[in-house]
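Need tokens for this chain, all 287 residues.
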Amino acid sequence: MRNFFITIDSTAAVTDEMLAHTGVSTIRFDVKAGNFSCPDGILSYENAKELMHRALTEGYAINAPSAARYEEFFDDLAEKNRNIIHISCGAGFSDAYNNAVKASRNTMVKFKRVSIYVVDSHSPCAGQALLMDRALAMCENNASAEEAFVELSEGAARLEQYAVSTAAHGIFVLTGVDNAGNGYNIRRYTSFNAACRTIADAYCQNADGAPLYIFGSTEIQNMTKAVARLRKSGCTDIRISSMSIARCLKAGPEAICVAFFGKPRKSQKKSFYRPGKDSDFFTPDEE
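Here are the structure tokens for all 287 residues:
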């Protein structure tokens, strides 16, 4: 039996098939376009195109689960008296992280024997999937939830993340994404392959042997071209998925998102992520 449960909020990495295979539990965002709404996830090409069209013409909203929904979600798992690692969408991208932390505190007040560790993934898709991959490996190696929290938090702090989008015909924009969800080092290319080579160079220089994750939006041509270019440039372990519809709406129909673990930043201190006592991190909400 695994030492802890792994949970995750909205990400395309967790399909129904993966849920059955890995035992990961997920709580979905809600996506609304015009008068149509659905849970976030990977939609069929036809449904995704229709929702994208509605979003462009009628507007859209992406709503993170409320703290009350998270609390109900955690309560159901806590009844089994096993600790929980929750890999949240980054605080810089949505309210999901803060809502999950608030809910985890309330659940732990009710279930004294259960500890819930909420990891800020600093990523809405590919980076979040990379952390889930590492959490599964640690769980299989009988690590404790506390050990997993420390390693995942350190990994999240050194995620290298890139997005490639189409600005205009023949112009591609490569954007680095920092841990607050902000774009930096924005570069424009007239060649899609050149943008991918920049990502491949960064991966080959900085990666720690972990896989590279790449997610594509509703138009998959750029993703397939990117995978071919990355492999040709030395990236051998590539994990591929489609973006959830929420990320497709945010990034655009032709975008790709890439994430991998880079080298530790000089300012990163390991002690910063040491969980310490539960009371240092999780206290009941004051009424």
